[in-house]
Structures are given as structure tokens and as C-alpha cells.
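The freezer alarm interrupted the setup, so I double-checked each line after restarting. Inputs confirmed:
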Amino acid sequence: MKRRNFIKNTALTGVGISSTSVFSKSILNELNMTQKYPVAVATWNFQNATKMAGTMLEKGNSALDAVEKGVMVEESNLKNTTVGDGGAPDRDGNVTLDACIMSPDGNAGSVVYLKEIEHPISVARKVMEETPHVMLAGEGALQFAIQQGFKKKNLLTEEYEKAWKEWLEHKEYKPIINIENHDTIGMLCLDEKGDIAGACTTSGLSYKINGRVGDSPIIGAGLFLDNEIGGAVGTGMGEAIMKSVGSFLIVELMRQGKSPQEACEEAVMRTIKKAPNYKDFQVAYVALNKKGEIGSYCIHKGFSYAKFYKGESTDNLSDSYLDE
Ligand code: ASP
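Predicted 3D structure, all chains:
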């Protein structure tokens, strides 16, 4: 029986959760790279971002600098309509951005509902480094960004403004699973010293209710790391990730001895157990441990993660998933 069918048949009975470890061995053989430093890994096929980060790591830059510069590539990419500049607006036409960053020393910074700033990840880093706080929101986050020298910019592209106006005609609000070339970028970097840093940045769900904030800027949900253990990032339906504090859970499971793959699997299983409508949304995780081992698991087929290792950039389709 194929792994995914086994899981499909057993997951909701509760047997699946305890049985995953038996099957994880084979997946571990596929995914375990037993690689040495450095490595950059990110949600979805954001290879330009992992290439930027990985190249920086190979030149000896820190994981923190690499992860910030890496995700900035997607924040500036107008073709990516769920991150940074060119991001999808909410249902009132506002582009509002969420981002967070964590450094190897356990420090964290975050911005939510930030408008008109192309690089929310860099503002999150400033929150982490220049204030005693972790999170700034909305108008206050914007004021802080401007004080820190960031320039305001209109982030709503003409194309997206047109699409939003068309959307207003029918106002359908439902998640669309695995649209190509989109979605939040969560990235983890392991540098040559063996330190891990992480970042997560998004414009959130298209046409969300004004004021809605998802998992991506929430430490423990869209991103968590402990430099003694490893890190995890999530993407997909933010509400499901927040309710299970998914990235924190994965790091804690790795602390208990699970591999990144096993930990991602268990986090997905916990999410779907509490969400009978899980077939209607995607949740995907990527985890990285101190040895450079990578794990990834998701609810639906179609999720891939990008990796940069030893000068090589790859798109790794997660053939490890729960259901089609
Ligand atoms: N997790 C993001 C959110 O809910 C969306 C995504 O990953 O595409 O805001």
C-alpha cells in the first residue's frame, strides 16, 4: 500500500498518528540529507529566494542576514501575489502585510497589518533589534517603519486592482488550494557556524476580511525555532496553523527526538483531527534540524519546498502528503 493511501485510510481513526513513525523511515531515507552546513530551505518553489540566501550562506554570511535577504526577493517579486509588493488586497482593497523573523539567540520580531512598506520582514527585524517588543501592528507599525527610514509605497498593482474590482462583483470568499506560483514564504537557514534563523512573510489570504491576520507573523504558528533543536515554518490556511501552534509543536516534537519529517507529519495530523473540513484547505510545513535534515508534510498534493545546498537549487515536490 502506498504511504499516502495508508495514511489516508488510517489518519482519522487515530491509528495514523501513532503509525506514522513506522512509515517515516522510508520517507526519511528520501528526505534525510545528512548534510553539512550551510543550507537554505523555503516553502513553495521559491528558488530565487533560497538561491539568494544559500549563496549568502556560502559566502559566510549569518543565517539571520541570509534569511532576511532571501525572503526579500519574494517581497519584491510582483509576480508573487501573496507576498510583499504586488500582494493581494483584502476585500476592501487594502494590501496589508504580515511578517516575522527569529534569530538564533531566540529573539523575535513581528509586524502585522502593515501597509505601504515593501519589506515587512526588515521592519520585523528592526522591531526585534531596536525595540524591547516582539510585535507591532497597523498604524503603529507603519509609523515605526517610517521612523526607521523605510519609504512608503503603493503596493496594489494595477493588475490586482482590476482583479479585486472584478471580485467585488461576486464576492466569493473561499480558499483556493495550491495555486501555482503563490503563497507565503517561510524560510529557514542554517549557516556555516551551525546557527539557525527563520523568516516568514505574506500578504495573507486574498480578499480577507479587513483586519484579518493569519499565522505567518505569529511566533510559534507560521514560524518557530530553537537554535538548540531546529526550526519550522508553515503555509496554507493560517487559522488552522494558529489553532495548533504548528511550528512550535514541530520544534517541540523534534526536541522529544522526532525527525523533522516525523514532526511535520504529526503536526498535520493534529490539525486535521480537529478540523473536519480539512479537505477544503491546505496546510503544509517544512522543518530543518541542527544536522541539516529536512522534513516536509502537507494535507494535499501539490506542495513543494525549495532548497539550496552546495551551490545547487532544487524544487522538492512533497510526495509525502495526506490526501489528494
Ligand atoms: N498562511 C497564510 C495566511 O493564512 C497564507 C498562505 O500561506 O498562503 O495568512
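Quick read of the result. The longest helix spans residues 15-31.
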